[in-house]
Each structure stands twice: as C-alpha cells, then as structure tokens.
Write a structure and sequence with these properties.
The chain has 474 residues and is mainly α. The protein has three domains: 125 residues, HUPs (Rossmann fold, 3-Layer(aba) Sandwich), CATH 3.40.50; 127 residues, Serine Threonine Protein Phosphatase 5, Tetratricopeptide repeat; 160 residues, DNA Cyclobutane Dipyrimidine Photolyase, subunit A, domain 3 (Orthogonal Bundle). 46% of the residues lie in helices and 6% in strands. Helix 6 packs parallel to helix 9. The longest helix has 23 residues.
C-alpha cells in the first residue's frame, strides 16, 4: 500500500509524488492533514489560519478532490497532529509513506518522529532546482550571503536550468480509503467572503487559468518591472504567489510558461524580472534548509546573539492588530491584509518597516501576523523577507527603512489604495494625508498617529552602528 501525504503540493501536474505512485502501481490513498495547532492562539493572540486563508485553502482542496475523483482516487481530509494521525493509520494498515521533503524544522521533526515506524520516501515539489543541482552551495560555509551572490552562482558558475516539469499521466491505480479520525476542523468564520482585492479561487485549474490569462491573453508580463510596485490593480503584478505557496502551481511549470512566452514574443527586462522573483523565492527556500532554526531567531543569520528583542509594547501591538495606528497608509494595508489575505509586495515591505522601526516590535511577531493572514504564506519567503527588513537576514545593508510619505507619493499618488480600504478618507488629498502622517496637521475624525515617525538620517545612524557591531563580532 502507498499513502501520499500532501502538504504544500496540492496539484496533479509536475508532481513527483503522484509519478512515484503511478510507477509503482500499488494501491494508493491520498491524505491532507490540517495541523490542529494551526488554530491554537498564542499569548499574543495570533494563530496560523485566518478566515480568508482558510477559505483559499479550502478551494485548493476542493479542486484537488475533484481532479482526483476523475482518476478514481479519493482525497481524505482530516485535522490533528500529523505524527499521531499517520502513526495510527499505519498501525491499522501498514503502508509506505510518500511526501515532499521538509521545508522547515517543524516538518523535519515530523518526519524524524515518523521514520522509526514506517518506510518514508520523500520528493522535491516546491523548488525550481533539485538538491543535487545546488549541492555545492548547501552548507552554512558556502551558501551565498546575498541574493546577488546566489543568482551569480546559479546563472554563471553552476550554469544550471530548472528541470523540465513532469508531464501528467493517468494514475490508473487502485484506491484504498484510510480510516481517519473525523473531518477537518476549520475556523468558525471561514465562510466569510473576502473584500475587494485579491478574490480568486484557489486550486490547480484556477491557478493555471490565471497564469495563462496573465501571460498570453493580457500579456501583462510586458510591463511587469514597471508596475510590480503598485499597491492595487488587476495585473500590476503576476499575483501567482497564492498558488505557488500551496503548491497548486509548480514553480517549474511557471518558469516553463515564461520561457514559452519569451520564445514567441522575445525576452525582455520584464520577463527577466519575473524570473528573478522566482529566483528570490528559490534563494529563501534553500537558505531556510541550510540555516534551519537560525532562520527564526531574533538575531537571525547575523553572527551571534548581538541584540535582544525590544520590550513588548501592548498598545502598539493592539493598534497594529486593529488597523488603528493613525497612519492611513499603514491602516489601509492592514485592512486589506485582514479582509482579503493579500497585499502587494511593496506594501508588505512598508508594513514590515513600520512594524520594526516605528512601532519597535519584535520582527518575528510581525512575521507570525503575516503567517496568520496571508493566503500566499510561504514559510521561507515570509520569514526571509521579514528578517531582511529587520537587518537580521541576508540584507547586506543590515536592514531597510521605508519613509511612509515618500512611498505614498511614489506608489499611491492618486490614493487609489487608501480610498479603497479607508473609504472614510475619500475626500482627503495626498497632501492632507502626508501632513497627518508626518504629525503636522491632523485629519478630522481620524485617529492621531500613535508614534512619531523617524527621520531617514536617524535610521542610517542606527544601521551604521549595527554594521560596526557586526564587523567587530566577526
């Protein structure tokens, strides 16, 4: 018997697990286990599965259930501790476990606990490259310290290309149904509909359909580099990250589609930039596997425990959670995140910078907040980007600071985003909001800013001091 345990690989195309099962021609069961601790609230009021995130995941699973039904294979859904569920199933009916390799220490721990009890075969389903291709880089001494170093290694020294996606084949397998302890337990409010913003369905076919529409019908990739930093719009960016995060789209399939587009219409700085974003994702995924638990510590990848987390500020944290910071650009972004589960990449950086440098909160708490709400939460990309902004990750500048008014003037000068997510400010002008955020003149009937924003020069001084500490520590 074979049991395929799906996690972040909710698709049939380019799926090594299904290909292994097909080749072995043994009876197959397919299971998805929603970890029960995802719904457990911690001391700061965060958990891992907001209503909009749960809704997107449900649509991914519904789509996969339908696709497997066509192959005469049933998808079994349940909640619980993955180790306990799989161990109990194995005791009832021994099987060989097929599942994708661990992305994070938590998953590695699951597999380590299961290893003594059953035969486990793992495969790679979340990355462009294989472990064998990147073997020269995969230890702490040789892994590149920056993305530019990683890209140069991949493009010039290693001269490698992603493997071709695995072509889908009929499974033609015998189904067997495991006896699982109940159905998935979802958040009570999972059924709430998302607000304006990202509102597409999850699942393999919706993901493939959107990618083809973005590339071949709208040809929106032709302006990707120019528009990717906008805060709102239909096709300002590719917006494929939710399907990549849950594995409904294969990164190799996306890369191949871009190559096919370039073959027909020619390559450009825009198509090249979208490929670079896929390489950024790849960089964080392999960095997490190399650095493991260091990825989640406050000092991160920097030498030693150089600093301690700032003192927890309850009022600042409550203002953040309630989108009541008094900064319209921030509150609009938090409303969008909470109600739609998605914000643009540029706005994520602005929110993270504000959380870390203005609210003076532990960056890991911000990363957990994003993990709870983002429908495209990807453990490597999310934690990698937060540590990058905080100065504890791969950023050679030791942190990034985004000046709110400069970002607002550059990326939302018409206030399209603010007016969408804060309609009560529909009569406010750009100058009104900039003055309010700078603490110069209050907007009527809008909360006052809870902190005074720093000047860029102050952040530069702090960053310089941190850089000097790092040099001495080395």
């Amino acid at each position: 018997m074979q049991l395929l345990w799906l996690r972040n690989d909710l698709r049939l195309h380019d799926h090594p697990g299904f290909e292994l099962a097909r080749q072995r021609q043994q009876p197959l069961a397919v299971v998805y286990i929603l970890p029960s601790h995802w719904l457990q609230t911690d001391s700061h009021g965060t958990h891992r599965l907001s209503a909009v995130k749960a809704r997107f995941l449900r649509t991914c699973l519904i789509q996969l259930h339908r696709d497997l039904y066509k192959e005469n294979i049933r998808l079994t859904l349940t909640s619980g501790d993955p180790v306990e569920v799989l161990t109990q199933l194995h005791q009832q009916h021994p099987f060989e476990l097929l599942t994708h390799t661990a992305q994070a220490p938590e998953e590695a721990d699951w597999l380590a606990q299961l290893q003594p009890h059953m035969t486990i075969t793992t495969y790679e389903s979340q990355t462009l490259f294989s472990e064998e291709q990147l073997a020269p880089l995969l230890n702490q001494n040789s892994f590149p310290a920056s993305f530019s170093g990683f890209r140069k290694q991949v493009e010039r020294k290693l001269d490698i290309q992603p493997p071709e996606p695995i072509a889908p084949s009929p499974l033609l397998l015998t189904d067997w149904t495991p006896d699982v302890p109940g159905n998935i337990q979802w958040p009570d409010d999972w059924h709430l509909q998302p607000q304006p913003g990202f509102n597409r369905l999850g699942g393999e076919q919706p993901g493939i359909k959107w990618l083809k529409e973005y590339l071949w019908q709208r040809r929106a990739i032709d302006h990707y580099k120019s528009t990717r930093n906008r805060l709102t719009g239909d096709d300002y960016s590719s917006q494929i990250s939710p399907w990549l995060a849950w594995g409904s789209l294969s990164p190799r399939y996306v890369w191949q589609q871009i190559n096919d587009y370039e073959s027909e219409f020619g390559s450009s700085e825009h198509s090249g930039w979208l490929k670079q974003e896929l390489l950024w994702r790849e960089f964080f995924h392999w960095s997490l596997r190399v650095n493991q638990h260091r990825f989640f510590t406050y000092s991160g990848l920097k030498a030693g425990e150089l600093t301690s987390p700032p003192a927890f500020n309850q009022s600042n944290w409550d203002a953040w959670r309630n989108a009541s910071t008094g900064f319209p650009m921030i509150d609009a972004g938090l409303n969008e995140l909470h109600q739609s589960g998605f914000v643009s990449n540029r706005l994520r950086q602005i929110l993270a910078s504000f959380f870390i440098h203005e609210l003076q909160l532990d960056w890991r708490l911000g990363a957990r907040w994003f993990e709870q709400h983002l429908i495209d939460f990807d453990v490597a990309s999310n934690w990698g980007n937060w540590s990058y902004i905080a100065g504890s990750g791969h950023d050679p500048r030791n942190g990034r600071y985004f000046m709110l008014n400069k970002q607002l003037r550059q990326y939302d000068p018409e206030l399209s985003h603010i007016h969408l997510w804060l309609p009560e400010l529909k009569d406010s002008t750009l100058e009104h909001i900039c003055q309010h955020q700078q603490g110069q003149q209050r907007l009527k009937e809008y909360p006052a800013p809870i902190v005074t924003v720093k000047h860029k020069e102050l952040f530069k001084d702090q960053s310089k001091n941190l850089s000097q500490k790092l040099s001495k520590a080395r």
